[in-house]
UniProtKB/TrEMBL annotation:
Keyword Transcription regulation: no
Keywords: NADP, Oxidoreductase
Protein family membership: Belongs to the short-chain dehydrogenases/reductases (SDR) family.
PROSITE patterns: ADH_SHORT (PS00061)
Superkingdom in the source lineage: Eukaryota
Name listed for the protein in its UniProt record: NAD-P-binding protein
A Pfam family that the UniProt record links to this protein: adh_short
Molecular functions per Gene Ontology: oxidoreductase activity
CDD domains noted in UniProt: 17beta-HSD-like_SDR_c
Length: 301
């Protein structure tokens, strides 16, 4: 199926080796658009490079933790295609550990933020600059930030992953409010529930502190580890989700937040109800909080 527009869109995709990144790369190409597929090991996409010519698929080595590689990847995109339409900011990894169990493993926790937050931020900064300065005035572009259901509710045993996605959503929301509307740059963070994408290869697991063995949240370790097992975790079809992401990029006025899958939609609704309930229950506590302002003395010179 060819792209619905006469001019194919140019997509910049991070984390294109596995999961949603790989799926989006394949869908973009199938639909007649152009993919700049970035990943740490370009050889992983060898089969795709055989199927598509370089004017349709540009594969670039990119570790999002390296600002220099981020800059080089966008410069190459400019040199080859002269424009960019959509950023699919997908590269991420997961650390499975209770918050306390991660004591003594700060390097692992820091690395999660280097990839999921700082890496995503550096790519986003480069994309905004490209959309504004390289694309024709007013053309702008779309930023699709791959977040997670864990980006709006803390997930037991994935606290550091949740924190990194909360941070990404916070800075993305701030960015969306900073951008001049005349630039026509739209920001959406996508919040999927559980999907079976093969991305568990990017999971890092820290052994459990024995104190948590019988804690109720301990069961979440098995659920996270069982994402690829249909007998353990029933999940939605990831290809249907990717098709929604593709359609989302073409909406004239896309939403800021886009939950995907019934689990995510239900969780977001429940979170919204909880937030509103807390605000209403304790609203009276914040009444009459302002200090009394006394009259300033009149100084007669």
């Amino acid at each position: 199926m060819l792209s619905s527009n006469s001019t194919p869109k140019v997509w910049f995709i991070t984390g294109a080796s596995t999961g949603f990144g790989r799926m989006m790369t394949e869908l973009v190409l199938k639909n007649g658009d152009i993919a700049v597929a970035t990943l740490r090991k370009p050889e992983v996409l060898a089969e795709l490079t055989k199927q598509y010519p370089p004017e349709r698929l540009l594969v670039l080595k990119l570790d999002v933790k390296s600002p220099g590689e981020v800059h080089a990847a966008f410069a190459k995109t400019r040199d080859v295609f002269g424009r960019l339409d959509v950023l699919f900011n997908n590269a991420a990894c997961v650390l499975l550990s209770e918050v306390e169990s991660a004591m003594g493993h700060d390097d692992m926790a820091h690395d999660i933020f280097e990839v999921n937050f700082w890496g995503a931020v550096h790519v986003t900064q480069a994309a905004v600059k490209f959309f504004r300065e390289v694309n024709k005035p007013g053309v702008g572009g779309r930023i699709l930030q791959m977040s997670s259901i864990a980006g709006f509710e803390g997930s037991p045993v994935a606290g550091f992953y949740s924190a990194s996605k909360h941070a990404l959503e916070g800075i993305s929301e701030a960015l969306a409010r900073e951008i001049d509307p005349n630039w026509n740059i739209k920001v959406t963070f996508i919040e999927p529930g559980p999907f079976r994408t093969g991305a568990t290869a990017n999971f890092v697991i820290i052994p459990q502190n024995p104190a948590y063995k019988d804690a109720p949240a301990s069961a979440m370790r098995s659920l996270w580890a069982g994402l690829e097992d249909s007998d353990v975790v029933p999940v939605d079809d990831p290809w249907k989700a990717v098709d929604l992401f593709y359609r989302l990029a073409r909406l004239p006025e896309p939403p800021l937040r886009f939950p995907v899958g019934k689990t995510a939609v239900d969780a977001l609704k429940k979170k919204a109800v909880s937030l509103l309930a807390d605000a209403e229950a304790y609203a009276s506590w914040s009444e009459n909080m302002r200090s009394e302002v006394s009259e300033k003395p009149v100084i007669v010179e």
